[in-house]
Amino acid sequence: MSIVVRTIASSIFPMALIFSFYVIMHGHLTPGGGFQGGAIAASAVVMLLAAHGYKRMESKLSMDGLSFVESTGAIIFVVVGLAGLIAGVSFMYNLLVGSPIFGYVPHGANGGYLNSGGILPILNLAVGLKVIAGLSSVVLAMILFTEGEE
Amino acid sequence: MNIMLHMPALLIVLPLLAAFVTPLIDKLSRKARNAFVIAIVVIEEIMMLFFAFHIFSGNIAIYTMGSSEPTKLVTEAAVPIRIVLEVDAMSAFMGIISATVAMAAAIYSISFVEESKGKGKFYTLLLIMLAGMIGMEFTGDLFNMFVFLEILSISSCALIAYRNSDGNAVEGAFKYMVVSNIAALLVLFSIALLYSQYDLLNIAALSKVISYTELDKVALVLLVTSFAMKAGSVPMHYWVPDGYSPAPASITAMLVSATQASLYALFRVSFTLYGKVITASYIGVFLIILGLLSMFIGVTMALSQKDIKRLMAYHSVSQTGYMLLGVGIGLYLLNTSDFNTYGIKAMEGGIFHIINNAMYKGLLFLTAGAIFYRLKTRNLNEMGGLAHSMKYTTLFFIIGALAIAGIPPFNGFASKLLIYEAAYRVSPILSIVAMIVSILTLASFVKVFHSAFMGAKIYEVEEAPKSMLIGMAILAAVIIILSIFPGLVVDKIVAPAAHALANWQVYAGGV
């Protein structure tokens, strides 16, 4: 597309990523979460693809890399669940409550503490990774398919 | 750490974790990936057997996700709010079937499935499918059941379309997707109907308070319809032949046990969830009619097929009919005095038939796959004389075909006999139809045997590769064990499962 579109798409891209990261990390406090944030990041990727075209993006986006990130997200999710089981309590047990990482338990009305929620922010992050990679590779697969038809 | 305590969660988590590790190992080496997948399915099977025998000795396992004491529910809350897994004898019984078939299918796939089309992803989907099946069978929560139903449907749908250069595969997958989405939405809708009235999702807790209002009846109808649809019973059977025939043979074997997971959900809903209130026998009659139609229409459609896997797919519709008939008779007689004399026997027959069908139908699909692997055709008219070169495949086919036709001493005979006897007490017509269907089944497998294996040697082919033979041998061995000890199997495994279904109070008392 034209240089105007490309420049604007490139400069909006980091902002979209920051917004997506915000939605993912505030998943346990505000509406949204891993899936929604991941979808925002994936739409940023789609925006770049639409603006620059697949040819120029080819070197930066590989199917292998995406599938690696996708698997990693899912593995983090399951491993976090298993950690509770290995600790001898139960699957998906919230191990981090009371610990310095996301372990703060606020009492009474509050505006939301980022440093709370236990394993939930980590699970959101894992889902976020999986959705970013999953949705991007869906779009990428569609592009690869339509290329062959012409 | 008491491993038996965590078993319900571990059995679901293990294939799920393995599913996502597989594509990573696939990048390193293909051999390592194959070894990893096989190790996982074998471990899963061993764990499942240990756990199942723990359950069959009279325990019910409860597992509350994320709780500080997984065997207990949250005590402060009046209702169970967390995700609860509940495994009774029926769930464990179904779990054994899923794990065994998945083990055979995974080993079989090593040489059967082409490397060229992303086999790492194939195994990922296969393991997710296994996790979905076991999840559906182990869950004690209606909404969770819906989630696992979706997991199962999506992964099966992708696997049916695995050979995506074949238009038929994509068409079959699309039909399956439409049917399973409609079914899943109906399930979700009926869960909403129940949740809006009782504020509960836990099956055991719901079964204690359910009062059979008009809305409950609507929910029951929707649940029974959608699960029967997913189980592939007539009149919603059309996706079965289209979906089964183009899928890779190992996936077809998995799909057979996937439809049985839906059948399990159907039985769980009608016996346990509505166990307290189901006094009117309409649903039982409905299941019997569905069973008769599936049996008869399935087998008559099968007789005229030329495609070997399509023929077998129609037979699976007809075998589903037997299970529906057997368990339907049980439901029809539930809460009557006849139930304890022959109603429970019919249920035992129907439930025994579930494991029998999963094994011999799986085996037959795998032999069909072996033929396809060598000849690259599924058309019976183009086959012939294979017994000369594919000796083991022929042997496995004979075992499977005799078992499905109910020839004594094979296991199909034992379960069918239980169904015939009980059905005769209800109405002689039922068992006459069942016997005719059995004869027609034999007829059509004689046809397959004759056209594929008998006659002069036409093709210079070799025996199927080793991994495929091992996959088939596992299922054949299970069939032989079930055939030699039918009495023992019925007493130790099938009867506890049938009683677990029949007594909803036991399941409800677990929570």
Walk me through this protein's architecture.
The complex is a heterodimer of chains A (150) and B (511). Chain A is an all-alpha fold. Chain A has one domain. Chain A is flat and about 55 Å long. Chain A starts with a helix and ends with a helix. In chain A, 35% of the residues are buried. Chain B is an all-alpha fold and 511 residues long. Helix content of chain B is 75%, strand content 2%. Chain B has 19 helices and 2 strands. Chain B is globular, with a radius of gyration of 22 Å. The two termini of chain B are 23 Å apart. Chains A and B meet through helix 4 of A and helix 1 of B.
List keywords for this structure.
heterodimer, A: 150 residues, mainly alpha, 67% helix, B: 511 residues, two-stranded antiparallel ribbon, 2 strands, globular
Q: What composes the largest sheet of chain B?
A: 2 strands, antiparallel
Helix/strand-derived category of chain B reads mainly alpha
What value does the average pLDDT of chain A take?
88
What's the total helix number of chain B?
A: 19
Shape of chain A: flat
Model regions low in confidence, pLDDT < 50 over at least 5 residues of chain A: none
**Topology pattern of chain B, helix = H, strand = E:** HHEEHHHHHHHHHHHHHHHHH
The tally of helices of chain A reads: 5
Helix content range of chain B: over 70%
C-alpha-based Rg of chain B, rounded: 22 Å
The description of the largest β-sheet of chain A is: none
Structural class of chain A: mainly alpha
Shape of chain B: globular
Radius of gyration of chain A: 18 Å
How much is the average pLDDT of chain B?
91
- End-to-end gap of chain A: 20 Å
Number of strands of chain A: 0
